[in-house]
Structures are given as C-alpha cells and as structure tokens.
Amino acid sequence: MAERQLTGKHAAMIFIGAFGVIITVNLALAYNAVATFPGLEVKNSYVASQQFDERRDAQQALGWTVRADATGGLVILSITDAQGNPVEVEQLEAVVGRATHVKEDTAPDFRFDGTAYVAPAELGDGNWNIRMKARAQDGTEFSQRVILHVNKG
Asked: What angle do CA 8, 13, 15 make, to 5 degrees?
C-alpha cells in the first residue's frame, strides 16, 4: 500500500475547513445572542439614574415583601407589608417570562383574592421572572423583578 503524502493543498484545505467551522459557529451564536436579547430597560439611563435614590427610598419605605409561586396552573404573587399583612395595590402590571428571552412573555390577568394576586398561567419547568410594577394606595411606584422557579416534578 502506498503511503499518502500531506501536500500543500491538503494542509490548506484542512486549515480553511477548520477555520470555516469556527467562524460559522461564532456567527450562528452571535446571531442567536442578538436575536433573543430582550432590549433596553430604560430609554435614557442617565435620566433614570437621577431619580434612582429617591424612587428606591420611597419603595423601601413601603416595607413590602414580594414572593411568587406557581402551582396547579396558577401563578400566585404575594405582596405583604412590614407586619406580614397582604397588600392590595391600586394598580398592578406584571409580565411573566423566561430570564433569557422574551419569546414566552405573557401578561397574566392578576386578580386580588384577599390574600394574594392570582392568575392562570401554564408555565414549563425552569427559571422564570416576573417583572412587576405596582402603585401603592398613596401613589408610590413600586417595581421589582421577582424570580420564580417552576419544578413540576
């Protein structure tokens, strides 16, 4: 059997093929990273930063604690005051979605049941975020990202 020699053509083809695979994979990963990025949180970060301390202090003065649970096809968002009593807010907006993309984002219709805000939502296993904005009865704005871990079994 004759021994095959590695020629310049063979080396060039191996070199081009290996770097072609690397470049293709990098381009595919970069495209997917940009295509699934949820976007900006605020339009102008400088303007938002000017009121950050004031908003944070007002929000902390409410003394609210927020907890999220998912069970039986329901998402339960519990807001309690410093004494542990349920809080009914003047207005609540919430978006439930994955931490990594906005493809599965939904805005459930949360209703206060006397102890917590409850909404029907079928969520798959994994890590979810609830991005909520609420307004207290005194008009104080409250916003928070609440982490929700779903494990059906």
From this structure: 95
Specify the pTM.
0.67
Q: Looking at residue 1, what is its pLDDT?
A: 66
Q: Strands 111-112 and 117-120: what pairing?
A: antiparallel
Tokens representing 89 are 């807010």
| Vertex 9: Cα angle to 12 and 27 (nearest 5) | 30
pLDDT at 52: 86
Which parts of 36-145 fold into alpha helices (H)?
Answer: 45-50, 52-62
Read off φ and ψ for residue 23, nearest 5 degrees: -65, -40
Beta bridge partners of 67: 78
How much of the chain is in helix, strand and coil states, percent to nearest 5? 30, 35, 40
Among 142, 78, 138, CA closest to 114: 78
For the record, the structure tokens of 1 come out as 């059997």
Listed as ranges, residues in the chain with pLDDT below 70 are 1, 38-41, 153
Cα 151 → chain centroid: 17
Angle, CA 108 vertex, CA 102 and CA 113 arms, to 5°? 150
